[in-house]
């Protein structure tokens, strides 16, 4: 992919496309990025923040009118999951 900035992947994703987008940007296999996220101590919070902040790669959509824009839903989901993580760690 020939991109100027980091974008979420449309083709290599499991949840939000963050790991696939990072892997495409760094030109490495996505399983390596996923392993790094699994073993990071703050991986859930970091993943959700990146999922809310990274833009979606729209190169596959072209100029079609039916492209999906779920940015609002992604931000709400990231906030809810972040709140759950914060509540969980505060209760420990």
TrEMBL record:
Q: Which InterPro entries match?
A: Phageshock_PspC_N
* Membrane-spanning intervals of the chain: 12-29, 35-53, 74-91
Write down the Pfam families for this protein, in alphabetical order: PspC (PF04024)
Judging by the UniProt lineage, the source's domain of life is: Bacteria
- Is Transport among the key words of this record? no
- UniProt keyword Membrane, yes or no: yes
Domain Phage shock protein PspC N-terminal per the UniProt entry, residue ranges: 5-54
User: What keywords are annotated for this sequence in UniProt?
Assistant: Membrane, Transmembrane, Transmembrane helix
Instruction: Report what the protein is called.
Output: Phage shock protein PspC N-terminal domain-containing protein
Organism annotation: Gottfriedia solisilvae
User: Source taxonomy lineage?
Assistant: Bacteria, Bacillati, Bacillota, Bacilli, Bacillales
